[in-house]
Design brief:
The protein has 205 residues and is mostly beta strands. It contains three helices and 13 strands. The protein has a six-stranded mixed β-barrel with strand order 1-3-2-6-5-4. The protein is elongated and about 60 Å long.
């Protein structure tokens, strides 16, 4: 998915100036690329967050509109406040559509494993996958059907869709497995310890 973000150039670099910018509902950011000089920009927070929440389930590109030009980018990095979890700063990297690049995509797990109905549970080991391909050949999604998995079954990288991309992980890396639920151990039976008996007929005087 491609989203367009309006950007403004900024000159503020001091901490107080950046905090003031954030108070105005903007997020400081940097736009850079192989053939693009690093440029300090500011992005509207509300607009970005609306798009960002959708990016959790699909590969997302951002068209940065700046001074009448548009730059095809990906969100390369972000700085998050450790307490509030607000995004404090972002790095947008311009990409060339014909260049080979590495991308990390969320894996879409489709269906409910039959093993779950057999008393097992589905364990998603890996929720994202890294691929290498041209920017204009990035798939909209990577999905895999788990419906036919029984207890003890699993899916690996080699079971993911094949296309104009290569997976970074080895084919035998597990992405999902259906485990049997652990049976509850029976409570241990308490064994009454024998007590010493006193022979009343042999009492010492």
């Amino acid at each position: 998915m491609i989203y367009t973000l309006e950007a403004k150039k900024r000159n503020n670099i001091k901490k107080s100036e950046l905090n003031a910018l954030r108070a105005q509902g903007m997020i400081p950011a940097v736009l850079y690329g192989k053939e693009l000089e690093s440029t300090s920009i500011a992005i509207d927070k509300a607009t970005f967050m609306r798009f960002y929440k959708k990016s959790f389930t699909e590969m997302t590109f951002y068209e940065i509109a700046l001074d009448g030009k548009k730059y095809h980018t990906i969100l390369k990095d972000k700085l998050i406040h450790p307490v509030t979890r607000d995004i404090l700063h972002m790095d947008f990297m311009q990409i060339q559509e014909s260049a080979l690049m590495e991308f990390e995509l969320p894996i879409q797990f489709v269906g409910e494993a039959v093993g779950a109905k057999e008393g097992g549970f589905t364990d998603i080991v890996q929720r994202t996958v890294k691929i290498v391909c041209k920017a204009n050949e990035v798939p909209e999604e990577i999905s895999v059907d788990v419906s036919n998995l029984h207890v003890g079954d699993s899916l690996r990288i080699q079971d993911l869709p094949v296309g104009a991309w290569q997976y970074k992980d080895s084919d035998d890396v597990t992405i999902v497995v259906v485990h049997a639920k652990k049976s509850e151990e029976p409570a241990a039976t308490e064994v009454e310890e024998p007590t010493a008996e006193t022979d009343s007929g042999n009492t010492e005087q």
